[in-house]
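Intended use. Records like the one below are meant for learning the mapping from a protein sequence to its folded structure. Do not use them to infer anything beyond what is encoded.
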Amino acid sequence: MTDWARLFVTYCQYGVSTVPGASGVEIYTLGDNLLHIGGPNQFTGFCGIHTGWIEARVRVLPGPPTETDVGWDAISEATLWSPSGRLSVIGLMGGTAEALTDVAVPRGLIRVRVHARDRLHETVRTDDDPPERHELHIWAVSEERPWRTVLADRKGRDPEQKPAKAAEWAMLSLVPRPSGRPAILPPLPPDPYEDDTGLSRVAVVRYRPTPVEAPVGVLPAGDLEVRLERVDGDILTWSWAAADEPIFPHPLATLPDDEASTVRLAFGPDGFTLRHETVLGRQAFALGLIWDHLLDTAGSYPWMETLREQATAATALVERNRRWQAERDAERWGGAPPSDRVRGLRSQAQSLARIDRPLLDRIDALPAARQREAACWAARRAMRVAGLEQIGWIADALADAEADRPLPRSFTEQHGAVAFKRLMSDPEVPHTTVPIRPDPKTFGTGDVTEMLQQSVAFPALIALADDDPLVAAVDAVYNAAIAHGDDRDRFLTDAHIALHEVISATHEG
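Structure written out for the chain above:
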């Protein structure tokens, strides 16, 4: 048992939590005048004082109390899931006390009974009144049971209960959408407060004073479904499965629980009891809220409306992204995207597509041998327009390529860096320029740049060193086109004619 500790509260509230920062049901969904359940790991306690100090302490018991303590004005209790075996009592705006922070409690399911007295608002409190006190009694349990009022405060009034809203939250918590965290980022480290290693499965227990009908069949849950199948008159199996018709564009692939569990029904003179056995402890609270709704409102699935809204939004987002990608591809490729093979090339395919998309498609359609011929044809045209066709070592390399012989090592190693360096230092190489007009869609409206024609044309020859004939053809044709400067369109026309002849020869062959 901890000592009494002073805790600063605001808005008449404090929180009891076993997992810091855990989300859950909104306040004022389920509860009474002393506590409102907030999720599997937390609830909110209510004070009389709006803003100020109360006294609180925690008692951990070896088992359930045999009788109700006297001398308190209000007593209520709820079940919490404590995976770490720690519990804290914190003021709404962050008020803390060392004695109430990270209190050691049993791991797993625990029952927390809250006692309160002297809950007076500061407007009526006097110096003669004793301090407001709240005491928490805690013991281990193996069954998740609903919250309950043990002793009602006569001053309060019963708040409206919203079991359908709680059931909606519960099902959505069991079938969450995958995280949107980018795959490029490292995974987040595991939360030590969420580690339930070594904890046993538990039971969810619900009681009704009069007979009710338990649902049998399929419970829809978006991309997933729950199959409730009768084993005999009083025993059902609960199992998760993928829905036959998922509603999201990217359906869930992971089930909340891979193991089937057992639902036992007991009918007697005192009423009806449902025991949902061997469920995961972290899911017991949510399953309890779902059963509370199903037992009282047969055939109603309040979570489906939200799931359908989420699915509609997700589908719309996928469609927007598809249209955006299609527009982007059309801009990048000068039309509909080419074949997957072309899209995966590390080449000048996009650049060629932007100046002559049909020419790219024609090159892609050629057999490998014809692509190599097209590459050599383009390289020779590039060398000719740049005045390099008659330079001895360049002419020899071009002849080797046309004869299907390997190019010299200076052309094949380091992307032809040695050959390019020789080009720039060879006194026999002419020096002429051609205008380079940037694509305004890609580079903006930049000024025309004059480039050394020989340096622009030479990559068409180096392209012949590529082992992939498609890459060689694409790069050779593109660089040859750029080397023609303002005569580019004439070259492209000639290229179409040449490729048409190559294609015709292929068909004739």
